Amino acid sequence: MESNIAENLNSVRLNIAESERKSGRPIGRVELLAVSKTHPPEMIRQAVEAGQLLFGENRIQEAKAKIPDLPTRLRWHLIGHLQSNKIRQALPLFEMIHGVDSVELVDEIQRIAADRGLFPRVLLQVNVAGESSKFGFDPERLLSEVERIARADRLQVEGLMTIPPLAPDPEYSRKYYVRLRELRDRLEKEFQFPLPQLSMGMSGDYRIAVEEGATLVRVGTAIFGNRRAKGQ
Asked: Is 103 within a domain?
């Protein structure tokens, strides 16, 4: 699969366009985020040669090691959980942070961004399924705290992100993506809080996510193959 990265990318892009068409959305509005975690720079370069410029990493240390070896025109998003003690390292590396999952993290990013003169772009992670194993705002708690979040004037809060429960059938994810979109719509209507971005959908279910309103899909395995074990 690794030797077919360009072919895989083309297939994913065609699937995204077909899902946009199926749901009556304009073609080309959904951005593909290629999840490059655990994959070496040479595989990322193959994706770049195929026209992919936006990549997602989970771990800051891994990203710090890779990014200097790759073209400076690439764009990077942090899609993993952000620990408060890693904020200072993350902010200069990534153009967007997907996993802002608590008001405490919002406050800490606000403080550090002010200290460094930055205005980071972020997404709020929502645990729509209420899984104890996952990070993210409880939807009702987010509704109660959104006004406090909106006062964090250093943060450019651009939307919401979610990770649904793992399931073999992609259709299982649909209800969670609907819930995220409906929560976004409610936040916009009740609090006049614009949230244009919805980061949802991965290799197994990104087509469903696009049908339900995703603007960013996070696709790794369908492009690069299975994740590499440490040391491979």
From this structure: yes
CA separation for the pair 116, 17 (Å, rounded):
39
Whether 229 is in a domain gets the answer: no
| Residues in contact with 86: Cβ distance below 8 Å, sequence separation at least 6, in sequence order | 60
Q: What is the C-alpha separation between 198 and 161, in angstroms, rounded?
A: 6
Rg (CA), the chain: 17
Residue-wise pLDDT tens digits, 41-66: 999 999 999 999 999 999 999 999 99
How many domains is the chain partitioned into structurally?
1
| Beta-ladder partners of 199 | 161, 216
The answer to whether residue 231 is domain-embedded is no
Alpha-carbon distance of 104 to 191, in angstroms, equals 21
Query: Can you read off the two tokens belonging to residue 222?
Result: 């369908």
Tell me, yes or no, whether 153 lies in a domain.
yes
The domain of 150 spans 2-224
> Could you tell me if residue 15 is left (phi over 0), alpha (psi between -120 and 50 degrees) or otherwise beta?
alpha
Contacts 24+ apart (CB under 8 A), 226-230: 226/1, 227/37, 227/38, 227/39, 228/38, 228/39, 228/40, 229/38, 230/38
Q: How many CB atoms lie within 10 A of CB 125?
A: 26
Q: What would the pLDDT profile of 139-169 be if each residue is shown by its tens digit?
A: 999 999 999 999 999 999 999 999 999 999 9
| pTM of the complete model beyond 0.85 | yes
pLDDT greater than 50 at residue 231 = no
Distance, CA of 2 to CA of 225 (rounded, Å): 6
Residue 31, domain CATH: 3.20.20.10
**How many other CB atoms sit within 10 Å of the CB of residue 49?**
11
